[in-house]
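Appendix B: complex inputs.
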Amino acid sequence: MSDATAPDDTMVDREPDSALAAVLAAAKRSDLGLVVLTLGLIYLGATLLTFTDGLNSVVGLLRTLTFLGLVYALSTLALNLHWGYTGLFNIGVAGFMAIGVYTMGIVVRSPDPAFGPPGFGLPLPVGIVAGMAMASLFGLIAALPALRLRADYFAIVTLGLSEIIRLTLQSSTFDTALRETLGVGTGGGRGMGMPQNPVRGLFLVDGRAGDPTALGAAVFGTLGEGGLGISNNILIGWGYILVLAVFVVAFYVLLERLGRSPFGRTLKAIREDELVADSLGKNVDLIKIKVFMIGCALMGLAGILWFGSQGNVSPSPQFEPILTFYIFVAVIIGGSGSNTGSVLGGIVFAAVLFEGPRRVGAVLRDTIDAPTPPTFGDAVAAADPVGLLAYATDNIAPLQFVLLGLVLIFIMHRRPDGLLGDRIETAAAVDLTRREGGERDE
Amino acid sequence: MSEPAADTDPEAADSPVEQAAQRTPSGLPLRVDGLRKEFGGITAVDGVSFEVESGSLTGLIGPNGAGKSTTFNCITGVHEPTAGDVYLNGEAITGLAPYEIAQRGLVRTFQIARELPEMTVLENLMLAPKNQQGESALRSVLPGLRGGVVDQEEQLRERAWETLEFFEIDHLATEYAGSLSGGQRKLLEMARALMTDPEVVLLDEPLAGVNPTLEEKLLDRVDDLRAEGYTFLLVEHDMDVIMHHCEHIIVMHQGQVLAEGGAEEIRTNDRVIEAYLGDDL
Amino acid sequence: MESIELLSPAALREHPGLAVVAAIGLLLCVDLLAKLAGLQVGPLGGSLSVARLGSNLWNGLVIGLVIGLAGIGLSMTYSILNFANFSHGDLVSTGAFTGWGVAFVVAAAGSQPLGALVTVRDAGDVTPGAIGAHVLSTPGAIVVGLLAAFAITAVVSLAIDRAFYKPMRDRGGIALLITSVGVALVVRYLIQFAYGADRRGITASVDGDTLATPLGVSVTAHQLTIAVAAIGLMVAMHYTLQRTKLGTAMRAMADNKDLALITGIPAERVVAATWILGGGLAGASGYLYVLLRGTIQFDFGWSLLLLIFAAVILGGIGSIYGAIAGGLVIGLVFTTSTVWISSDFNAAAAFAVMILVLLLRPEGLFGGVSTA
Amino acid sequence: MNGDSADVGTDADPNESAGATARTDHTLDDEAMLRIRGLDAGYGDLQILTDVDLDVADGEYVTIVGPNGAGKSTVMKTVFGLTTYMDGTIEFDGEAIEATPPEEIIHEGIGFVPQTDNVFPGLSVEENLEMGAYILDSVPQDRLEAVYDRFPILRERRDQKAGNLSGGQRQMVAMGRTLMLDPDLLLLDEPSAGLAPDLVDDMFDRIDRINESGTAILMVEQNAKEALRRCDRGYVLVDGENRYTDRGETLLGDEQVRQDFLGG
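Resulting structure:
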């Protein structure tokens, strides 16, 4: 089929030129296919980069990429509800995520100050719900007065709020004040340890290394150090990824249902023209507050699932405004307004833009047989391209952010609808292209 | 719009008129009493009072700066009047928010059509109806409750299609509203307004930028709808339209009502002529 | 005049939020006076030395001048190009690094490796003290560095405009804002790539740095340099805007773009002037900020950005005099807030003031006529 | 031309009013300084003007009148490139200018006073006037003095911000600004709008004098009677089309004009 080149250009639906094109075309038609295809390409690239280091490295890198892809997808989905659907220019995402994860930590941590900042010692699910509720409450506090502001002023207010949250969490004065009043603490600038990830408990008794549960023994025995040789921690990480994947699906379903409903229609209307929505009898302020609170609760949950699984959280650098901008870039890559785009944007951002360059840089660096000049000045002064390349590949992190900035500028110049283009989803609970009433007799 | 009239002949709409007469409350649909609006010392509207009869097409005209738009905005809740009252079916709606006024049955269109460009024509229409179950975030998400939402959506979709057919833009149903021509947008706006089940429709220059063929169509639709009992208040600069279609005309000048009456009365009123040609009164 | 009207009884009745803020402000002033007098009345008062308050105010003034200087450019791009420029903080950093590179070269060329000097880095065991960057020991280098900071940042700003913003002239403020976030990333991390990520000392310490101690407040040579330089630049800016044809055209364009167009004012030339002046002042302020703090780090401008925004919003977006006044207020809030709250919160207090102004008086405290 | 308008009225052939519905001999086709032919224009995809023809001869005083929304202001904005041009030609001194960008039109010798927002509120009166001469290397002091002589109140207020002036004074600033270049043609968009009634006559007198000093005027006016009484020639624009043109006085007496304003 593929080599049957059709000379007839008038055919509207031409056969794809190659098998790859056919796969691409099929994937484009299905949202799930597109996500799987993207992940597959990322996995392929990652495998090519690391396969010489052995299976453990490959699986470890894939774990890292998948983890980041999924947590970014969660955050991106939540922000898409604000920015993509409703046009609320919230750039305080990092603050709402910090509120979520810190509240969870304080609620769940042991009251015994011997183990660091004391908490209330309540069960984890209570902590998660409390974290979402608190993030939502802060959303309300931000939204109530600020919703009537112009988009750019609104953005600055949310950014200011997120910085106030971060500086407060960082403050030892605030920590002390909390300890004296509520008997709980934040740990100030040092941050706080996070409760043990329950997924770890599935594999290890009480989470202790070397003490596997039945499930742990089975998995470690076949795939892990007793079998294929993958590190046990990486395998546990994959276990958590399954949890994250469930949450991504749950977020997606929730937001799709919200979006494809009269509620979502009102959100889009508010984004397009508030006065029209108002004139058609929609209580714009109330709806904006609602959607802002829902989005903030999801951001809180995303913060918990992401940073809560990382052992320790601290206000800086984890919750600096740059985190918000990463998530924004992910939304814009995917095309704001599309939930599938958000998932893809999150994955592509995390794997290709965030984690990719430094991996590629490290691999490239290994191929260069020259010492790295200590500074850029030395690298330039030596006038040796190899030295400069060595410096560049050793300092790939800043270059990757430069790339990120350029990608963002490029998208704003050339593809303001996102890399996937126009994927605006219809806001109705029924298929609008069909009509139940059948043809009308004229 | 229970009976979308494929037939545009006004004679055929007799029975809807009767139906409408039954459902219209005895009070006047719209009454403005002593309306006054000041902006930082400048009085834009200065004690305007008028009434709009049920099922009528009332024209509101006047030279530039006469205060028509401010009056319009005070009625629809965009501005809060400095003094005076607005009554909808006898109920005071003065100072309510635009959405509250719309929910009570008074809906407006805009001078420059404000379609929602990145929504399809059908979405634009389906946005409008009041009290949709699915406007509750919870209902549209929870599995047990979503069934009702879907049922209602199917009914709305049917109504939206009928309304689009009535305005003869059903072939555009799945287009993005932003891709419509200027005249089509005007039709879309009026269709969307009707989807809210209004008592009174305020039309702000519905014919600006509309070509003659479409203009005819739009006016036919308005006539059909009046026959069904809808009440219209129209701000329009096209005098031919005002004179030929409005049975009652209110002329504003310098923030006040200058004259009121039928077309012939207005056309021969010296004060109106003077106001339009620009002499001091 | 506007600020007096702001506190008139009628204005307060109309804006209850403003009244509450005014009441709190009054309370704080009373408290401050009580503290100075050493009185304690219930929760009010306490003790505070005149010297401490004086030093808070003086430090606040100096920081405020630097922030105000940076704010002028942000305000100008906001009013003439209609967008909130999120890369402005990184222009501040650009000026600091390039300016100090030049200052180092002037101060120590010949005695130190050129590469190290240009990249503002002490080579090997040579400390900033050995380079001797201090206004008392190498005044020429400090002045040349300031001029270089202005000039290089102006050129960089102009280049950025041509490359990234010019193709988007007809787009909305939000699209430009997002683009400026991208530009901010590009600039900040190119700085990191070229200059490294570490925080490092820049200025030398010399004997006799404290020039005077009126009322027990120590005034250092660098603080005085900053005050003189910042005020000098502000006066020059004022002169440019008020007395030159191009400056008047800039104000005209900020007032009314369409009218400027039909009056024959060449928009692109005015835009270029905006970037040159606004970017140059941002660079100069970054250079002066390093002179004040003595250290440099690739992202310090970015972390100053929100304070600069706070100053501009406080003064009323679009007004350069408002930006200067707003900068002073923010600087004073930043330093004197420590009388009441922990210094952990001084930046948070400045942000809180900004948010309050946006909510209660979005046109800014000082009028809000959008005239540069 | 105010002074001799009465003569024009008496000199006019009484039969001419009957011919007002057709285009009359008063159209100065080929010698016209500004020639508009078959102009279609609007905003975005919204067409406002259809096939508009219009001429202004050297030194002539022409007004465009018509009911609300007829597209009167759109004609002027289109000359200055501020609308969406669709079709037709605009020539000035024989040179096609329909594609000339707005900021360059002023180089042709045309000045434009928009109806609203026509001063720079944050600039002083003098700075506003100086901006009018931006395209020159230096501010021509004699022109500045001439403007001050024409509008003495502006000399008194030269250092005040234009934003603090009254409506009538702003209108003077706006006109003064365009006069700084001594334009051959001045476009005035509803100069009487928003003025207190006692100031309207004064404004029209000033416009007459500007015209008497040799500057051609193309004016859009809501106040049709006064405008037609004073101008050399008037155009009646209805629904984006020019219905007819004639001497102002002739149009003023025409029953058809009345009908156009109030609908037929």
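Confidence is low (pLDDT under 50) at residues 1-16, 438-442 of chain A.
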